């Protein structure tokens, strides 16, 4: 048996078969190009239809992605049947069914993040622009894709989290409601009239114009500190109209000014005698003794 001659005939047959399929391949390439154009047109149509609605941006993005994916699946299926005339949609689905288990194991993380991304986009909570904390990551949701969520830190770093992590873990959404409560501890000296101090602090906080309307200011005498009686002061801020930390800064400054004007002391924590004795004695202190 002439193996070289057999190999030559096989190579020639493969070459002739490839040449015979060149027209089909060319048509398939044209179909792929048309599919690319159709996907862009379909996305533009989706943008035009959803642009006049109040649909959330993440849902718009999900709809764009699903439409593009559907167009590409149809286009690639048509191109495959042109190159391989014996291939049909039924046989393709049957082949996918046979390899579904292997594909599932191989791309488990990808599919998990994909479905997690779909569910994240469908739920109403955690939208683009929200301030969130996920698994120790605090920042603003900048982008949600079908695979990952982009969170921009307030120090401008970007963290990219897999959607499965965002979906499985606890998510704290700071901007779910515009009105947020803030608080601060204020200490006054032990010889202070506590009723007067409470009134001074309350009047000071209520004078801040950036507080949320219709919300009460709470002032509670909480505990006896090491050098002061400590008040817990609580107020509400409308974060849609005011800076959360800016309002807190104004409240603290206003309380300090009001206590100074009322001659109410905010004492420093004192150092106990026991702690002082534990400190090393300097040469000057030894000479003075």
From TrEMBL:
It comes from the Bacteria. Residues 185-266 form the Mechanosensitive ion channel MscS C-terminal domain. Residues 109-172 form the Mechanosensitive ion channel MscS domain. The keyword Cell membrane applies. One of its GO terms (cellular component) is plasma membrane. GO terms for molecular function: mechanosensitive monoatomic ion channel activity. Signal peptide: none annotated. The chain crosses the membrane at residues 20-41, 62-84, 96-122. Coiled coil: none annotated. Keywords: Cell inner membrane, Cell membrane, Ion channel, Ion transport, Membrane, Transmembrane, Transmembrane helix, Transport. It is found in: Cell inner membrane; Cell membrane. InterPro entries: LSM_dom_sf, MS_channel_C, MSC_TM_helix, MscS_archaea/bacteria_type, MscS_beta-dom_sf, MscS_channel_2nd, MscS_channel_C_sf, MscS_channel_TM-2. It is a multi-pass membrane protein. The keyword tRNA-binding does not apply. Belongs to the MscS (TC 1.A.23) family. Homoheptamer. Mechanosensitive channel that participates in the regulation of osmotic pressure changes within the cell, opening in response to stretch forces in the membrane lipid bilayer, without the need for other proteins. Contributes to normal resistance to hypoosmotic shock. Forms an ion channel of 1.0 nanosiemens conductance with a slight preference for anions. This is Small-conductance mechanosensitive channel. It comes from Altericroceibacterium endophyticum.
